[in-house]
Design brief:
Oligomer: single chain
Number of domains: 1
Organism: Streptomyces lasalocidi (Streptomyces lasaliensis)
Keywords: Membrane, Transmembrane, Transmembrane helix
Transmembrane segments: 31-51, 72-91, 103-122
Largest sheet: none
Region (Disordered): 187-210
Radius of gyration: 21 Å
Strand content: under 5%
Protein name: ABC transporter
Order of helices and strands: HHHHHHH
Shape: globular
């Protein structure tokens, strides 16, 4: 388990959440949303390293499939992630703390997005450490989301006229990325490589039944 990357990102997230208690004046609710969204992004980046496995090519031939191995890793990480997120919520002062349900929905969607991105890297390449590429892609996705107008985006706040649509989009992102991560986790039945054709399709070769 790549605990080092998770520890660095997790510690940074808790420090960021705790920084809301440093000013003499308690931040407002909008600042609480912004801070916890950044904290959730750091947590998702940490989960992107969950599938890092230097021994991937050795364990691929074992009777235990990749789905079981990924499931065990996720099962070990979930209680730690839940406790970490609870601590981050409690570190934000109550007047600045967003409602736990909606902000947790956003954090869960970011987490499943990170897992889906890491799963796609594992599925489509021979990389053994998808965490770094996943973190970069997640940061670029967050930047793209920040540029989308609130009317169609994911960053509106309670009280905005588009708040209901924003929650629906976060819920849709959670379901879609969770399904993509689950569908991409099992080992492919046949790995395709560019320039490789089946034997029957090669010119000059025929097969005869004897």
């Amino acid at each position: 388990m790549p605990w080092r990357a998770a520890a660095v990102a997790g510690t940074g997230g808790l420090l960021l959440a705790g920084s809301t208690r440093l000013p003499e004046r308690v931040p407002d609710a909008d600042a609480g949303w912004a801070v916890l969204r950044l904290v959730a992004l750091l947590g998702a980046m940490a989960l992107g390293f969950l599938l890092d496995d230097p021994a991937r090519h050795t364990t691929a031939t074992t009777p235990v499939g990749r789905a079981v191995r990924a499931g065990l890793r996720t099962g070990l990480a979930l209680p730690v992630a839940a406790a970490w997120w609870t601590a981050a919520l409690l570190l934000v002062p109550a007047p600045a703390r967003p409602p736990a349900g909606p902000v947790t929905l956003e954090a869960a969607a970011m987490a499943t997005t990170a897992l889906a991105l890491a799963t796609a890297v594992i599925r489509c390449t021979d990389a053994t450490r998808p965490g770094r590429a996943t973190a970069v892609r997640l940061a670029l996705a967050a930047l793209a989301v920040a540029l989308v107008p609130d009317r169609w985006g994911l960053l509106s706040l309670p009280g905005d006229p588009w708040w209901t649509g924003t929650r629906l989009r976060w819920a849709s992102a959670l379901v879609l990325t969770a399904l993509l991560a689950g569908a991409g986790t099992p080992e492919p039945l046949r790995r395709w490589s560019p320039g490789r054709r089946p034997l029957a399709g090669r010119p000059g070769r025929t097969s005869t039944a004897r």
